[in-house]
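User: My instructor asked us to take a sequence, write out its structure as tokens, and then describe one feature of it. I'm not sure where to start. Here is the sequence I was given:
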Amino acid sequence: QVQLVESGGGSVQAGESLRLSCVVSEYIYKRGCMGWFRQAPGKEREEVAVIDGYGRTRYADSVRGRLTISQDNAKNTRFLQMNSLKPEDAAMYYCAADSGSDCYSTHSVDFQYRGQGTQVTVSS
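Assistant: Let's start with the prediction itself. The structure tokens for your sequence are:
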């Protein structure tokens, strides 16, 4: 059973919006931790936004107020809605999920399931 499928991304102008999607198994969706990480060329992968099994969210300071996690309960899908995108948001974005309820780690390597990534390009 595929545990995680991510989609979305693309190329936009600064100030525009994009939405990333991540479909997970029902168990992970209802109880696990999941979220998005990103990695720009020459930089380390960083946590962008996560939601834990209790519904609590955590956002990087650089994206708070512009990027938001939303969800579709019927489809076990969470979305990363990205508004007011900036050139510095350009990166490869990765969805990650873990069956554990708490989002203890801020490193995607610690998550059980990780997507292959989707590119987000933001032009100024």
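For the description part of your assignment, you could build on this observation: The radius of gyration is 13 Å. Try explaining in your own words what that tells you about the chain.
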